[in-house]
Amino acid sequence: MFACVYLLRPADEARAALTRLAQEFSPRYELLRADLVAIDVRGLERLLGAPSVIGAELARDAGGRGLSVHVALAPAYTAATVLALARSGVTVVDAATQAAALAPLPIGILERLEEHVPMVSVVKRWGVRTLGELAALPTADLTARLGRGAAAWQAVARGDDTRPLVPALPEERFDGTLELDWPIEGLEPLSFVLTRLLEPLSTRLERRDRGAAVLHVVLRLGPPAGRGDTYARRLELPTPMRDVRTLRTLALLDLESHPPPAPIESVTVAIDPTPGRVLQHTLFTRAHPTPEQLSTLLARLGALMGQDRIGAAATVDSYRPGVFAMKPFATDPPSPGGKAPGFRLRSSFGGQVGATSRSSAPFSSSPQSPASGLEMHSALRRCRQPVPARVVAEHDRPVRVTTDRRGYAGGSVLHAAGPWRTSGAWWAGEAGRAGRAGREPRLRDLPVPPFRPVPPILPYWNRDEWDVSLSDGGVYRIFRDRDADAWFIDGIFD
Prior knowledge:
The protein is of the alpha+beta class. It is built from 14 helices and 17 strands. Helix 10 (187-207) runs antiparallel to helix 11 and helix 11 (244-257) packs parallel to helix 12. The protein is elongated, with a radius of gyration of 36 Å.
């Protein structure tokens, strides 16, 4: 037996009261809509009595909460839902009278179950006016004309459940708090506290087939920070995990990079759960490192080098030369039939490997290998920082290129292609130009160390690029900074 309660005037407070009403009568209930709830009342006969008494108790309890409701009880929750929408007061039917109670109801009641039911207008044109007439139609012919959805709505007209009741489960919290007898300082004693808190949470996650998506660590601090002050850290995990050792290590590494400013008096750990990870290993490929191992490695590198100095290079939608962005590494292995996440490869100089036709073949459009006949392309190894060069130009064309940088011999220009003029960020105005005028962007003038993986982004650029072949056998890409009136080597063609 199922009971359905329909709320006539749904408001925010009334909806919450309707949910509490269902919780008090049975733990098995489903909130079909904000104003409609179905309750499994099997077993309440021993406590309250007959179904009519159960319906009266539901109506009386709802009235005591200030709710105006319709109540219906039937062997199928679908039939109880339709009757609660159609009839006021308390309606009780059994298996023998359920079909007879639904038959005279107007077919428009289906539109109150779900808005925009196109089938209702169609069957009305056929002359069907009640649920009983819809239930009497041949199911095969109805489905052939209106599709599979018509069979589901015909089952509603007959009072048959098309799916089981899905009980609403209370939101389960995965958290724990430990009050310390005396304040602690340092990560070593904190690791024992975190282990004690994470072990029961990991067990609960395993029983629910869940994994941790976000780990929250909240520390209540003592003097001198002020008693009662809290220090919170939030770790977004790259993949669902519940290994105690891994979670503890990640939390400790994060606190090592961001230490609390005062001794710790209380520790709270909370986990945002997510469905567990399912892995299917293959027989013919090498096993990948586990996400727990990769996450721990990246956390250690982040604590050692800084979070902004590790990651994968990603392209940026910009014409600025040599610009790229950093994004976190993906720790999930690729699916057995899928491909690994693709990143643009970069050379040891930080330049892109393989590019456009101009960069791959500066002087020949489609060179071929005489032995194999395969088409071959050269690649540009871009310097992470442009190399200052001395260029002799005649009639605005470079004729000789030299530099003091080791590894670049230089020589006379045998062939030259260009110039290609590029500029951008002109909207930065005079402020962007003033920072560069009259000086060369040499490596020692840059605001970041040379080992920093994120390149310095100058606010404005304006340059002429050339591809030159020199007498030393090298092919270079050079450019002239028009604002600074200086020449630089941008890369080498292999």
